[in-house]
Structures are given as structure tokens and as C-alpha cells.
């Protein structure tokens, strides 16, 4: 079944008319931007992640199909584990395992580290990732941890998302510099897992790859349901099923 993406007229313009960034307050102040440092108090964080746009209860699992520009398909399984990890910056994070396979063989295996602050923002604190080639480990490039070698935490989902709100998702100079901006809270998406009539849409860029532009869609009570590259490639990742 082919996924269908339905976006409003204002969004077809790729969100270029959206205004500038909007500050949002939380335990650490406004949401982090660019390379700026953040000082997080571990006491403000929990591994119980309840943000409605991406609740991460241990045992939850999302299965996605990713199709690249050449038509190759990969299976992506994201599982919230019952494990936690104390990050170098002192915050204890929930470990979420991400397994990418192609033809049954591993392509990339990653442990991502998330925590939620008192305001409800979901912070991304790093990842331990291994790329595979012909079924064998090849590289751990891309791994980082907030508080190590200048790496800083970022935000994956704000507590109070609204159009125009911008933030960095991760930061390690030259390695991880993804940024996002909320475009809309009123979009629609249909994927094999179902039809979602009111989803949050983000505009995602990375200054390390200036040609790339991606849009991501999140459904309340579900999490990410669709990601579409519209520049620098035509990759598409769509939700096949979810187990809460």
C-alpha cells in the first residue's frame, strides 16, 4: 500500500513563509539553538517520557519502511527499552534501540538516549551507533554523548509546539548538527499504519548538508509516522505498525 501525504496549501510552499524562531521556556530556559551551550540540571529530568507527540513507554515498538532515492527498501524497528543510561552531563536517559536492516542483514544498530524535562520537552542526549557492511561492523562514526568532546543536548519534541518554534535536535561540531522548526500542527498523513487527520509537521535541516531538506510528521499518542526528503534526495520513511 502506498503512503499518501496530504498537506495544506500553506505547507505546499515548504514552510518558507513561516516566521522566525519563537522562544520557549523550560527548566533550561529557551530551547537550544545552533551550537550554544546548555546547562541542564539532572534533577529536572525523568526517563518517564509522556510528551503526547512521542510517548516512549518501555516496550513500545514502531516498525517503519524506508525507501531511498534508488528504490532500495530498509526495515527500521524502534524499541523503547527498560534500560537507562547516565549521560556524561549528569542526566539519566531512557535507552531507545533503533535497528535498520536490509534483506534481513543489519545496516545500522543504534542506542539513542532521551529524557524529558519538567516542562515536557523531550531532550536528545546522544547515541551509540554502529554501521554494518556485509553483516559486519564497519564504523561507529556519528556516535556522541552530551558532555563529551563539546557535544551538547538538543530537543526532539517541544512541550508546547507551535508554528515558528525552532530548536536544535543535536550538536557535536562537524558530526551532529540537525535543526528543526515547527511548520504546522494541522496537517494530514496516511501511511500503512493508518490515516492521521491532525499531525505535527517539522522542517528539518542540517548545516553540514546544506542541500538536504526533510519534513517529519508526528501524530498525537503515536509519535513519528512519516518522514519525506524533498531536497538532497527523495528518501521516504513511513510507519508500518506500532505496538504500544
Describe this structure in words.
With 244 residues, the chain is mainly beta. It is 2% helix and 51% strand. It has a 16-stranded antiparallel beta sheet that branches. The longest helix has 4 residues. The two termini are 23 Å apart. The N terminus is likely disordered.
Whole-angstrom Rg: 17 Å
Count of individual beta strands: 16
* Content-based structural category: mainly beta
The share of residues in helices is under 10%
Order of helices and strands: EHEEEEEEEEEEEEEEE
Q: Which sheet architecture does the biggest sheet show?
A: 16 strands, antiparallel
User: Beta-sheet strand percentage?
Assistant: over 45%
Q: Quick one: overall form?
A: globular
End-to-end C-alpha gap = 23 Å
Q: Characterize the quaternary organization of these chains.
A: single chain
- Low-confidence segments: 1-28
Mean pLDDT across every amino acid position: 90
In DSSP terms (H or I, runs of 4 or more residues), the helix count works out at: 1
Short recap of the structure:
The protein is mostly beta strands.
Keywords:
16-stranded antiparallel beta sheet; 244 residues; 16 strands; 51% strand; single chain; mainly beta; 1 helix
Amino acid at each position: 500500500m502506498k503512503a499518501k501525504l496530504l498537506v495544506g496549501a500553506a505547507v505546499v510552499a515548504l514552510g518558507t513563509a513561516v516566521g522566525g524562531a519563537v522562544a520557549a521556556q523550560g527548566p533550561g530556559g529557551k530551547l537550544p539553538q545552533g551550537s550554544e551551550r546548555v546547562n541542564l540540571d539532572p534533577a529536572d529530568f525523568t526517563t518517564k517520557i509522556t510528551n503526547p507527540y512521542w510517548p516512549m513507554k518501555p516496550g513500545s515498538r514502531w516498525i517503519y519502511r524506508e525507501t531511498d532515492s534508488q528504490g532500495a527498501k530498509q526495515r527500521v524497528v524502534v524499541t523503547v527499552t527498560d534500560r537507562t543510561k547516565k549521560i556524561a552531563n549528569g542526566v539519566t536517559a531512557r535507552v531507545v534501540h533503533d535497528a535498520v536492516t536490509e534483506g534481513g542483514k543489519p545496516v545500522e544498530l543504534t542506542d539513542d538516549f532521551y529524557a524529558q524535562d519538567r516542562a515536557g520537552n523531550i531532550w536528545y542526549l546522544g547515541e551509540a551507533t554502529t554501521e554494518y557492511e556485509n553483516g559486519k561492523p564497519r564504523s561507529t562514526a556519528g556516535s556522541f554523548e552530551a558532555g563529551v568532546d563539546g557535544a551538547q543536548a538538543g530537543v526532539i519534541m517541544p512541550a508546547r509546539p507551535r508554528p515558528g518554534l525552532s530548536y536544535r535536535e543535536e550538536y557535536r561540531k562537524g558530526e551532529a548538527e540537525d535543526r528543526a522548526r515547527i511548520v504546522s500542527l494541522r496537517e494530514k498523513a496516511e501511511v500503512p499504519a493508518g490515516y492521521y487527520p491532525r499531525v505535527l509537521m517539522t522542517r528539518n535541516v542540517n548545516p553540514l548538508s546544506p542541500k538536504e531538506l526533510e519534513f517529519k510528521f508526528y501524530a498525537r499518542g503515536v509519535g513519528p509516522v512519516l518522514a519525506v526528503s524533498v531536497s538532497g534526495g527523495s528518501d521516504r520513511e513511513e510507519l508500518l505498525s506500532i505496538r504500544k
